[in-house]
């Protein structure tokens, strides 16, 4: 009954959308005409204004388009259906081709639409996020980055290189948008699990910002992907005649930091309220830049903090799956494979979460001496006996005391550690595909948990530590599984479903960025990040947790929240959908709640300075549901605007 009712509402909304105009700015419920300074082919070549065959005849006349397009006027819905049919045709025609060939073909057809018609592109992306996120984001984005110099057709975003030293403050004004709300920047030094890809890493900021638009409703005219090209140490790229970046070794030390410093100052000078997300920096620079800028600018590092937040939500879900209270998180034994920026980010956030647990009084009950983590890197188990130990790892290195497991030594193998520790959770952020071997997984079967949790979180898919099939076969059908890249669910022997949860940063980083933006946060605090993670962790019902579901599914699209509010005067019942938590929902539904949690945390910590027409006092007076509604209202939604030439 509910499904049929939702389908009827969806049809009503489609009819309304086909005749309504989108808002000029985020948050408006009615969008007026858009004034353009172009005519004729200049409009057709601008993907922001171009409507292809959907220009009405009156617009064709006033914009000088009559005769430049086929005579038939198509509706938005007809264009949408035409593209989806083309996409399905491509799927049919590439059956039997290697997966990499198919993935790149899908990326190309989406990219061509992006280059031609942004409004239609983002509508297609929002409505089909589950199917298209793996194409514009992980895992296909890794393949795109590896081949970017050959795939390059037109520039997207900005490139700041080591050769631009001293020019960045003026260069930033070359970007045409007056306002930028969201920036994603990389130096290409550690792209997913693929290593140093130099300037080809620009694919990551582009993909991430597409997710920001689809999931958080950030206006695509106000996003900016940025590549900091400081060279590459990848000899294969330096020898590649098609490589588009600087042909020099990477800058290091103070030379490197001087480039990033100048870039950050330039961004802040032009767009002081913009949120800057750092992405895929190698470990030493990920931590260095985070500590260097986090209290000066509104920025965060998604690899360190976003991954950690999603992992923490999964870890808390794993405690619930055992039928234990969340306060028992402090008693979990967790083996972490990977001591890079993502692994250490998870460890730090998990430790902070424990200190925030009710009844825990900091050092008194859970001090630095309490260590429930066993961390391994390429050299095995990390202990305090290791020479040249990285200071960031010291607090998690195993030592000597009552909590230590007998006969576990420096450099012990993963199999040894799992057999002797019998952990509740095995978490991988190693970037080494298949490192959770059959022997390791069979050892996890002896875990002290009734529902052992295995998190294979490395991206892309080829770098995942194991597959869900491996886990349910070797650990047992009572296991809980999550991965960074998408996998299909597994049919178990009793006919039940083994859930391949995707612990995807997409659940958190759009809400973190949106919440920080709409609260006008001076900077992004640990408290704001914890609020995001705890919101995601509480999203899943107990019934879903018992089935092994740790993260919400976006397989069925619930009503888009910003649109619901825009249309609430017509259909008041729509708003009730926003307040219902369900394991199957729209990614924007999740982002609205996470963003609201982040905004409220910013207000609580006195970090909020307000945004546009909402000041800090108004933010403080909002209830939790009011804040969710406020965040949802501010989401941009793609519909064609009437265009009027300024002459």
Please sum up the structure shown.
With 647 residues, the chain is of the alpha/beta class. It has 28 helices and 16 strands.
Q: What best-fitting shape do the alpha-carbon axes yield?
A: globular
Rg (C-alpha, Å): 25 Å
Query: Averaged pLDDT, please?
Result: 89
Percent of sequence in beta strands: 5-15%
The major beta sheet can be summarized as:
7 strands, mixed
Assign a percent range to the helix content. Answer: 40-55%
List unreliable stretches of 5+ residues: 1-30, 556-584
Structural classification: alpha/beta
Q: Count every beta strand, where a strand is a DSSP E run of 2 or more residues.
A: 16
* Strand arrangement in the largest pleated sheet: 9-8-7-10-11-12-15
How many H/I helical runs?
A: 28
User: Cα distance, first to last residue?
Assistant: 53 Å
Keywords:
9% strand; 647 residues; 28 helices; five-stranded parallel sheet; globular; alpha/beta
Please provide a written account of the structure:
The protein has a seven-stranded mixed beta sheet, sandwiched between helices. With 647 residues, the protein is an alpha/beta fold. The radius of gyration is 25 Å and the shape is globular. Helix 15 (302-321) packs across helix 16 (341-355) and helix 21 packs across helix 26 (587-604). Helix content is 43%, strand content 9%.
Annotate the secondary structure layout.
Elements: H1 2-19, E1 34-36, H2 41-44, H3 57-62, H4 76-93, H5 99-116, H6 118-127, H7 129-136, H8 140-146, H9 148-151, E2 158-161, H10 168-171, E3 182-186, H11 203-216, E4 223-229, H12 235-238, H13 253-270, E5 275-278, H14 283-293, E6 299-301, H15 302-321, E7 334-337, H16 341-355, H17 363-366, E8 373-377, E9 380-381, H18 414-421, E10 425-428, H19 438-444, E11 453-456, H20 468-474, E12 480-483, E13 490-491, E14 497-498, E15 500-502, H21 509-519, H22 526-537, H23 542-546, H24 561-566, H25 575-578, H26 587-604, H27 616-621, H28 624-633, E16 643-645
Helix pairs in contact: 5-6, 6-11, 11-21, 15-16, 15-22, 18-19, 21-26, 22-26, 26-28
């Amino acid at each position: 009954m509910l499904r049929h009712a939702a389908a009827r509402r969806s049809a009503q909304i489609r009819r309304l959308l086909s005749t309504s105009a989108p808002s000029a700015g985020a948050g408006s419920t009615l969008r007026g005409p858009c004034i353009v300074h172009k005519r004729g082919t200049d409009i057709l070549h601008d993907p922001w204004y171009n409507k292809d065959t959907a220009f009405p005849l009156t617009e064709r006349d006033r914009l000088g388009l009559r005769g430049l397009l086929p005579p038939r006027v198509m509706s938005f819905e007809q264009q949408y259906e035409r593209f989806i049919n083309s996409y399905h045709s491509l799927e049919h025609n590439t059956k039997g081709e290697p997966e990499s060939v198919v993935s790149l073909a899908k990326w190309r057809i989406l990219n061509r639409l992006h280059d031609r018609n942004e409004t239609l592109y983002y509508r297609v992306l929002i409505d089909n996020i589950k199917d298209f996120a793996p194409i514009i984001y992980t895992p296909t984005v890794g393949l795109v980055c590896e081949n970017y110099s050959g795939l390059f057709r037109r520039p997207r975003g900005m490139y700041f290189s080591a050769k631009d030293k001293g020019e960045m403050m003026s260069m930033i004004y070359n970007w045409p948008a007056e306002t930028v709300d969201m920036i994603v920047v990389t130096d290409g030094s550690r792209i997913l699990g693929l290593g140093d890809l130099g300037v080809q890493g620009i694919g990551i900021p582009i993909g991430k910002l597409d997710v920001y638009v689809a999931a958080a409703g950030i206006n695509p005219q106000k996003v900016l992907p940025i590549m900091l090209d400081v060279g590459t140490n990848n000899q294969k790229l330096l020898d590649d005649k098609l490589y588009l970046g600087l042909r020099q070794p990477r800058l290091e030390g103070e030379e490197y930091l001087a480039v990033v410093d100048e870039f950050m100052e330039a961004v802040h000078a032009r767009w002081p309220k913009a949120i800057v997300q750092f992405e895929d920096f190698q470990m030493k620079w990920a931590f260095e830049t985070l500590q260097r800028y986090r209290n000066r600018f509104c920025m965060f590092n998604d690899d360190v903090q976003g991954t950690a937040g999603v992992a923490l939500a999964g870890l808390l879900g794993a405690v619930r799956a055992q039928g234990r209270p969340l306060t028992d998180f402090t008693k979990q034994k967790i083996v972490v494979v990977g001591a890079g920026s993502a692994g250490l980010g998870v460890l730090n956030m998990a430790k902070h979460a424990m200190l925030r647990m009710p009844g825990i009084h900091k050092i008194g009950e859970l001090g630095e001496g309490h260590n429930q983590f066993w961390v391994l890197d390429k050299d095995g188990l990390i202990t305090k006996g290791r020479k040249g130990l990285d200071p960031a790892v010291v607090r998690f290195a195993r030592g000597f005391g009552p909590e230590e497991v007998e006969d576990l030594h420096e450099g012990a193998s993963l199999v040894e550690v799992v057999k002797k520790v019998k952990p509740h959770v095995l978490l991988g952020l190693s970037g080494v595909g298949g490192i959770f071997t059959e022997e390791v997984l069979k050892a996890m079967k002896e875990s002290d948990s009734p529902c052992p949790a295995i998190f294979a979180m490395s991206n892309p898919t080829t770098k995942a530590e194991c597959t869900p099939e491996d886990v349910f076969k070797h650990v047992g059908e009572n296991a809980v599984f999550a991965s960074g890249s998408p996998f299909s669910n597994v049919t178990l022997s009793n006919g039940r479903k083994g859930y391949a949860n995707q612990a995807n940063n997409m659940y958190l980083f759009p809400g973190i960025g949106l919440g920080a933006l709409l609260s006008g946060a001076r900077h992004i605090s640990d408290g704001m990040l914890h609020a995001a993670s705890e919101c995601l962790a509480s999203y899943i019902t107990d019934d879903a947790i018992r089935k092994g579901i740790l993260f919400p599914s976006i397989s069925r699209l619930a009503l888009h929240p910003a649109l619901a509010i825009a249309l609430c005067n017509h259909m008041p019942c729509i708003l009730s959908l926003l307040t219902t938590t369900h394991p199957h929902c729209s990614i924007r539904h999740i982002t609205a709640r996470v963003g609201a949690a982040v905004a409220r945390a910013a207000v609580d910590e006195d970090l909020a300075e307000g945004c546009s027409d909402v000041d800090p006092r108004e933010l403080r007076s909002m209830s939790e549901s009011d804040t969710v509604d406020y965040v949802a209202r501010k989401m941009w939604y793609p519909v064609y605007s009437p265009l009027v030439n300024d002459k």
